[in-house]
Design a protein that fits this description.
Blueprint: H1 24-32, H2 48-77, H3 94-117, H4 120-139, H5 145-164
């Protein structure tokens, strides 16, 4: 039996190769692994962990903002919703706290939505608002100590996540 070489393009293989000569092993190794191309429209470049942290920060901002809005509405509607634990230097009227929570909550929700949509302005605004959010809940410690500590932790994660995420190439 004699062995014949099939003509290019006649067999089940990939067909004729044009351009610089490359060995079959290099060609098949080259086409087994997909090459990363530019990010599709609406997708961020970078790894899943990097963009996942930003997306999680956006979701946390949305949820925290909605809870802040509900906190604010409760404080505005009824002045005796929260009881102060001890005396504190940074004491405000609970109606004032209601308005502070409401306004910051609305801004946090809008920024979280912007992060989820991939808006360029949302990253810097998110860092600034999360820092303000941390200060707000530090000052609110005597009224809701456990929730304030949880909120400060959420704010620290959001600042870290937005500050360490890779830059977007648009």
């Amino acid at each position: 039996m004699s062995q014949t070489t099939p003509e290019p393009g006649s067999g089940p293989g990939p067909g004729p190769r044009t351009g610089p000569e490359v060995s079959d092993a290099a060609w098949s190794a080259d086409h087994r692994t997909p090459r990363p191309g530019p990010a599709a429209p609406g997708q961020r470049p970078g790894g899943g962990w990097a963009t996942g942290g930003m997306m999680f920060a956006g979701v946390l901002m949305l949820v925290s903002g909605v809870l802040g809005i509900l906190n604010g509405i409760a404080g505005i509607a009824k002045d005796d919703v929260y009881g102060r634990i001890g005396d504190y230097t940074y004491s405000f009227n609970l109606t004032a706290w209601g308005w502070i929570h409401l306004i910051i909550g609305i801004l946090v929700v809008l920024t979280g939505w912007g992060l989820l949509k991939g808006a360029d302005w949302a990253r810097g605004a998110g860092i600034g608002l999360a820092a303000l959010y941390i200060v707000e809940y530090f000052m609110f410690l005597p009224y809701a100590p456990v929730w304030s500590v949880v909120s400060i932790g959420i704010g620290v994660f959001v600042v870290w996540s937005l500050a360490t995420a890779p830059a977007q190439n648009r």
